[in-house]
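It is worth pausing here to work through a concrete case rather than discussing structure prediction in the abstract. The textbook approach is simple: state the sequence, then state the predicted structure, then interpret. We follow exactly that order.
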Amino acid sequence: DVAIAKARQLYPETESRRFAVMDAMQLSADDAAFDFVLAVEIIEHVQDVDRLLTEIHRVLRPRGRWPAPGR
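Step two, the predicted structure:
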């Protein structure tokens, strides 16, 4: 994926930073796995926004961040 390749070029992956493409409706990550989730240009394209938000909340650690878009 072009966006992931560019991100890795600009910000090399480390033990605490990695980039991945996943199915947003069923993320392949453990509960509370991330401090930060970035999901760009997606919310307006999913049919089940509640499920999307539930998945994002599930994988975020307590006090984790997701820059939610304005609606």
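Step three, interpretation. The CA atoms of residues 20 and 41 lie 16 Å apart. Residues 49-59 form the longest helix (11 residues).
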